[in-house]
Design brief:
219 residues; mainly alpha
């Protein structure tokens, strides 16, 4: 897995919000020109890149935590590297949770509008094509929305566990604290697996959407 630092939390929100714009945009709406297939595919790929970035940052946070707790002085320089990354993760978790809720709340409205627009298409072949778009992309969009909810459920306890470990490492690590730290680290790994699984499924659906836009030529 390629490790990359999350350089801009708002950037993730922006790219993920493209999902709301790109997937359910009107197929035919008055005199508006439809987006090209390449533009739709590019939007999906932009979202996918941000999801990969989120996933990479989750992984690198665990790597930095493991390095910090393995040092003779767990609260030393490597600990500071971990705490700096944790600040980014806290911001990222908030941004991701907000975006997941927006997609949950707004997705049905977008697709209801698309369905109404499709019903007004006069040309039978064009209407049939639009209906096919609707079914396939609605299925992918619903999967993405559910996976984002699943990831969010694991994301929050993941960050909470990291914060508890940070607090423990700032004090004297006696045997009891070491045992608690080990338990928390194991829990963090399980949460990480759950989040990664959900995010990888989102990436797969975004690949499907990008391929759909390229194949069909227009949204």
């Amino acid at each position: 897995m390629k490790l990359c630092r999350f350089s801009s939390v708002p950037g993730a929100g922006l790219a993920l919000s493209l999902l709301l714009v790109g997937v359910p945009g009107a197929y035919v709406r008055g005199a508006e020109a439809a987006l090209t297939g390449e533009a739709g595919a590019a939007r999906m790929e932009a979202v996918r890149n941000e999801v990969v970035n989120v996933r990479s940052n989750i992984f690198i946070t665990l790597v930095q935590l493991n390095e910090a707790r393995g040092q003779p002085n767990p609260s030393g320089q490597q600990f500071q590297v971990f705490t700096n990354q944790l600040v980014r993760m806290e911001e990222l978790a908030k941004a991701f949770g907000k975006r997941a809720e927006e997609i949950k709340q707004r997705g049905n409205a977008y697709f209801a509008d698309w369905e109404a627009s499709t019903a007004r298409i006069q040309d039978p072949d064009q209407r049939r094509r639009a209906e096919q778009h609707y079914g396939d992309r609605k299925k992918s969009y619903d999967t993405i929305g559910q996976c984002m909810q699943d990831a969010r459920k694991s994301f929050l306890p993941f960050v909470e566990g990291l914060t508890k470990m940070k607090d423990l490492m700032q004090g004297q690590l006696d045997d009891a604290r070491q045992a608690t730290l080990r338990d928390l680290f194991m829990q963090a790994n399980w949460h990480c697996i759950d989040i990664q699984r959900s995010l990888m499924q989102i990436e797969g659906e975004l690949d499907n959407l990008a391929a759909s836009f390229r194949k069909d030529g227009a949204i």
